[in-house]
Amino acid sequence: MSSLPLHVFMAYARKDDAYLKELKKHFAILERDKKVKLWSDNDIEAGANWNQNIKNALHKADIILLLLSADALASDYFYQNELPKALEKHRNQEAKLIPILVRACTWEMTPLKDIGDCLFPRDKQPISGKPNQDSIYENIVSYINQLLPELNRKKAAIEKDRAEKSKLDAELKKAKADLKSAQTAANSNATRINEIEQKMKDLQTELREKQSKKYDLDRSARDLEGKVQTLEWQFKQNANSTYRFI
User: What is the pLDDT of residues 159-191, one digit of tens each?
Assistant: First the structure.
């Protein structure tokens, strides 16, 4: 089972801050029991990178609550950044997206129309016009509390898949590194083999040259030996002739 708490990302317009605060109050028990951890841009520390903090929190989110109003939909950041990413995570089953209609707006003209069954209040009427708003917040929190076991199972499965993918990626990276090392070694060996073959050719050429020189020397030696033998024979002949005259 995945470790708790689950991360709850809350996107809203500044004019809807009062609705955000009321909603957070109703989450207090779940947060105290460490079943959920709420996050909104109010949690960004002064001087921190606002955009990067929102991206990181949205990336980690297991549950995404979008507080809808005309001001929220009019916000370029909300509509062009938070909404598309929230829908993507919802479609990929990486997070549960729950739109909450706090004030009247034309949400049906946005991509949210495709997940209207996830909208609160269930009658699709804004919270601002409800006489008993606490009951709406209570219904939202109760619904999420019922979802927690299933969301935890899904998160555990996702984390397991990520761990296995990470392991496979590491193994693939190692295999590629080993292959590269083997190729480098093979190239080095091929170069060494080429060098040895060239050395052998050079030695063979040198041997042939020396063999040719030896043949020439042997022939010269034989010629010289023949000349010496001829001189010796002539000397003996001359010596014999001289001896006969005496």
Answer: 888 788 888 888 878 888 887 888 888 888 888
Name the strands in the sheet holding 36-39, side by side, starting at the edge strand that comes first in the sequence: 36-39, 6-11, 63-68, 96-101
Radius of gyration of the chain (CA): 46
DSSP codes of every residue in the chain: -PPSPEEEEEE--GGGHHHHHHHHHHTHHHHHTTSEEEE-GGGSPTTS-HHHHHHHHHHH-SEEEEEE-HHHHH-HHIIIIIHHHHHHHHHTTSSEEEEEE-S---GGGSGGGGGGGG-BSTT---GGG-S-HHHHHHHHHHHHHHHHHHHHHHHHHHHHHHHHHHHHHHHHHHHHHHHHHHHHHHHHHHHHHHHHHHHHHHHHHHHHHHHHHHHHHHHHHHHHHHHHHHHHHHHHHHHHHHHHH-
pTM: 0.69
- Cα torsion angle, 122, 126, 131, 136, sign: positive
Q: What would the pLDDT profile of 68-82 be if each residue is shown by its tens digit? A: 999 999 999 999 999
Domains of the chain in sequence order: 6-167 (3.40.50.10140)
Residue 32 is encoded by which pair of tokens? 């105290």
- Specify whether the CB–CB gap between 102 and 136 falls below 8 A: no
Q: Angle 67-68-74 (CA atoms, 0-180°, nearest 5)?
A: 120
Establish how many alpha carbons lie within 13 A of residue 115's alpha carbon, considering only the half-sphere containing its beta carbon: 19
Q: 177: which 2 tokens?
A: 């590194």
